[in-house]
């Protein structure tokens, strides 16, 4: 019986561990970086106009930036996210246009380098997006989903083996 339990446990471990590559893409889902235009950004003393005013993103990891206008001064002030400098080969030539209170604008960066932007209406509001290539930051070697699967597989493999090692009691007289 222990041999059979060991075989079943081994097959179960192989089946579960083979699920690790399936779980990995979910563990590395891409996320966006948020930048807000806070209340008072339209006033030079309200700097920084963009919060944060400098962000770093990695292609394929978090290379979409979302700007949200939350400047409620005077009932809401419009702003823009206007590109003013980009690396060679960059493709961020059109910004948000008019961005009223409560509206958002997003852009996905695909070329590494440093991108500069400002608000067309309020030129003291400036920001920087630094874009790094995907290889610049190593991917996690063992994502959390993979760890959970591995621990479950190990538990599932050990449990039948431990049960098979227990001595059996024989009834008296046998």
Q: What would you say about this model in short?
A:
This protein has 174 residues and is of the alpha/beta class. Helices cover 26% and strands 22% of the residues.
Structure notes:
The chain has helices spanning 2-17, 20-27, 144-165, and strands spanning 32-37, 54-58, 64-69, 82-85, 104-108, 113-118, 126-132. The protein starts with a helix and ends in a 9-residue tail after the last helix. A hairpin with a 7-residue loop joins strand 6 and strand 7 (126-132). It is elongated. It has two domains: 1-28 and 139-157, no CATH class; 30-137, Immunoglobulin-like (Sandwich), CATH 2.60.40. It is an alpha/beta fold and 174 residues long. Helix 1 packs antiparallel against helix 3 and helix 2 (20-27) runs antiparallel to helix 3 (144-165). It is 26% helix and 22% strand. The longest helix has 22 residues, at 144-165.
List keywords for this structure.
22% strand; 4-stranded mixed sheet; 3-stranded mixed sheet; 3 helices; alpha/beta; 174 residues; 2 domains; Immunoglobulin-like; single chain; elongated
Work out the count of structural domains: 2
CATH superfamily of the largest domain: Cupredoxins -  blue copper proteins
> Which overall shape is indicated by the principal axes computed on the Cα atoms?
elongated
Strand content: 15-25%
